[in-house]
Design brief:
Blueprint: E1 7-13, H1 16-29, H2 35-41, E2 48-54, E3 60-66, E4 69-75, E5 78-81, H3 83-88, E6 94-98, H4 103-107, E7 111-113, E8 136-141, E9 147-153, H5 157-162, E10 168-175, H6 179-182, H7 203-206, E11 229-230, H8 253-265, H9 281-292, H10 322-340, E12 348-349, H11 350-358, H12 378-387, E13 391-397, E14 400-406, H13 418-421, H14 425-432, E15 444-450, H15 456-459, E16 469-471, H16 472-485, E17 496-498, H17 501-507, E18 517-519, H18 520-530, E19 532-538, E20 545-548, E21 554-560, E22 566-571, H19 580-591, E23 595-599, E24 607-612, H20 616-626, E25 634-635
Parallel strand pairs: 6-8, 21-25
Antiparallel strand pairs: 1-2, 2-3, 3-4, 4-5, 7-10, 7-11, 8-9, 9-10, 12-14, 13-14, 15-16, 15-19, 17-18, 19-20, 21-22, 22-24, 23-24
Length: 646
């Protein structure tokens, strides 16, 4: 379900009354939870948001998050706890156990097959009698009670027994390492020892694997598949053969490798005596394990991440341990808060804070890389510092975090010495004065279309529904497929399309009822005109944010002030990931004029840069050349002052 990125429709804070309703719904869906458990899952006062999403296959869902960590997912009016919630309440739902080497196959889109379920003792009709088809369930790995996947049962308990433990057991909805997991803090599962764990991995004896899943039988999950990893996923869920060997799009391969390495460390598989394995099973298990523990190996262009052994740059540098990087990162952060950032600089983008302030205190001859620390992500590091009380981080614009407050009197800053604060000031000048625009990466902006009710009949056969968002290419493909599937292309002239009743309702206006044929371009143009405009903004390292309506460009205006003086205003920089304070500083240095950054007069519009005089020419060069913003997303360039005639 979440092997590919989902699209965010809206994200809002939850109301108090809705908290009570959600708490009641969770309580009725999962009766094993106590009142205290429900209060912990849906707290009364902590920050909580409701995110409406579209999955890659076009299904709509709702994510309930606490402190930006997803706790509950709602799909088709059914609630599913996330792995973050199940780690706190592992007995919340019925749980099945499987082998650790299967986790990688689950990430590739495979469902859990019944031969891969570990069952101790003899299977009888009463073994799974409490299970009903469609029930929410969890899956854990042998040796650890912390679940790694959530889904729904594909068969009832009686059907499982009648089938002889053959066929699909669990249809997965959410898995550790997928896009929903990446939507949270990306933490790893805790180790909750399972005293009933199976010590012997003789899968044929313990797991009920049939010969249809034995090694060498042509398992479609790949030649290294362990028993129980099925790939007959539901159509349209993003788990086709082409993607079954691909890591989640917004998750770097080293992070997925780290997840798999962690899962290996919290299970008992490495302690298994290989002498207990059946013929060929020991070699196969070793092969699966070595592939499973790739720890971030860079995948080959074909997408088969198990074929390459090249290690990514995310592995800590040999000259510095992870602890040393953490210590240096912590010290540079404290120096930046204490001596570098001024309150007049706030709010400041978190990326600009790291680039312009933290890196400036890196000692000479050393390299500071957040990926080589234990935090891996800047957002995770700053979240920890926010908990410690150094800073306050808020999301002023969708997908853009900014530091809005700092505490220079924090107790942790008193341990800094004057020599620490003077650390590599020449390098601070070099790094702090480095052209921030040179390392800036413009977010990817994609113009899209949202499907209204008038186009539902056209797109429904291809897996889309009302509210789905499609790119221009996807819309053209849908129209082309519809015409060809219904044999509407004119046999005598391939340029024309015969209009069926549904297509005629969409493209014809009043007075055109007698029109039977229309050219391809006219049909496509008229269909697109019926769709609602939308756009997608993808910031580096974050999931795409989908918004309806047309994207607001960067707006440059020139106002006439008192005494015939002019002032230049710039709006909407944050939408494109540009730090307004950085732009203001560069303009101030570049043209020697006074600048300021203020809140926009309209609430929710972000920050506005004000500068003295008509500086449109300099700002245009800065945005178009340095920040690489496409010209169509910048308005007001016509206000550029004309060259004076000599």
């Amino acid at each position: 379900m979440f092997q590919k990125p989902f699209r965010v429709k809206t994200q809002t804070a939850i109301k108090g009354s809705d908290r009570k309703k959600l708490r009641a719904s969770i309580g009725s869906s999962f009766p094993t939870l106590t009142a205290d458990d429900l209060t912990q899952i849906v707290p009364a006062k902590e920050e909580m948001t409701v995110t409406k999403i579209y999955t890659y296959s076009g299904d709509t869902g709702i994510i309930y998050s606490v402190a930006k960590n997803p706790v509950v997912l709602e799909l088709d009016r059914q609630l599913y706890p996330t792995v973050y919630t199940l780690w706190r309440f592992p007995q919340m739902v019925f749980t099945l156990t499987t082998w650790p080497q299967l986790h990688k196959k689950f990430l590739g889109g495979a469902d859990l097959m019944l031969p891969g379920v570990i069952v101790q003792g003899e299977i009888t009709p009463s073994t799974f009698k409490q299970i009903r088809k469609g029930d929410t369930c969890a899956v854990k790995l042998n040796g650890n009670l912390a679940p790694v996947a959530v889904g729904k049962m594909a068969l009832s308990g009686s059907d499982m027994f009648d089938s002889g433990m053959r066929g699909k057991g669990v249809q997965f909805v959410h898995i550790l390492g997928d896009e929903l997991w990446a939507f949270g803090d990306k933490s790893q599962p805790p180790l909750i020892p399972d005293v009933d764990a199976v010590k012997d991995i003789n899968i044929d004896a313990e797991g009920g694997a049939g010969k249809d899943c034995s090694p060498g039988d042509g398992d479609v999950a790949g030649k290294d598949s362990a028993p129980g990893a099925g790939t007959d996923s539901t159509p349209g869920d993003g788990s086709s053969d082409e993607t079954s060997q691909t890591y989640p799009a917004t998750e770097t391969r080293d992070e997925v490798g780290e997840t798999e390495e962690h899962m290996r460390s919290v299970c008992i598989e490495d302690n298994v005596d290989k002498s207990t394995l059946p013929d060929n099973q020991g070699n196969r298990s070793e092969s699966v394990r070595s592939d499973y523990c790739g720890n971030g190996a860079e995948s080959a262009p074909s997408g088969n991440h198990g074929d390459s052994t090249e290690v990514t740059a995310g592995v800590p540098d040999v000259s510095m341990s992870v602890d040393e990087v953490d210590t240096m990162l912590d010290k540079c952060f404290k120096c930046a808060v204490k001596a570098s950032v001024k309150k007049s600089d706030l709010p400041i983008l978190t990326s600009a804070f790291y680039r312009q302030h933290i890196l400036s205190y890196c000692p000479a001859g050393k390299s500071l890389d957040i990926k080589k620390s234990s935090y891996k992500k800047l957002s995770k590091f700053l979240k920890q510092k926010e908990k410690e009380g150094y800073i306050v981080v808020k999301e002023l614009n969708k997908g853009v975090d900014s530091i809005v407050s700092i505490d220079k009197s924090h107790q942790g800053l008193k341990e800094l010495t004057p020599s620490d604060l003077e650390c590599s000031q020449s390098e601070a000048t070099d790094k702090g004065g480095r052209d921030g625009a040179e390392s800036f990466r413009t977010p990817t902006i994609t113009e899209m279309f949202s499907i209204p009710s008038a186009l539902v009949h056209l797109v429904k056969p291809y897996g889309y529904s009302k509210g789905s968002t499609l790119t221009v290419r996807e819309m053209r493909n849908v129209i082309t497929d519809y015409v060809r599937d219904n044999n509407l292309q004119d046999e005598n002239d391939n340029r024309n399309i015969q209009l069926d009743p549904h297509l005629a309702d969409i493209v014809l206006n009043r007075g055109e009822g007698n029109t039977l044929y229309m050219t391809w371009e006219d049909v496509i143009s008229k269909v697109l005109s019926k769709a609602q405009p939308a756009f997608s903004v993808t910031y580096p390292g974050k999931p795409a944010v989908i918004s309806k309506g047309k994207i607001e460009p960067i707006k440059i205006t020139v106002e006439q002030r008192a005494s015939n003086k002019k002032a230049t205003l710039i709006d909407n920089l944050e939408m494109f990931g540009i730090d307004p304070a950085d732009v203001a500083h560069r303009v101030q240095v570049g043209v020697a004029c006074s600048t300021s950054v203020n809140s926009h007069p309209q609430k929710g519009k972000g920050m506005q840069v004000l500068m003295q005089g008509n500086q449109v020419k300099f700002v245009a060069d800065l945005l178009l050349e340095k920040y690489k913003v496409p010209r169509k997303y910048v308005t007001g360039l016509e206000k550029m002052p004309k060259n004076k005639k000599k």
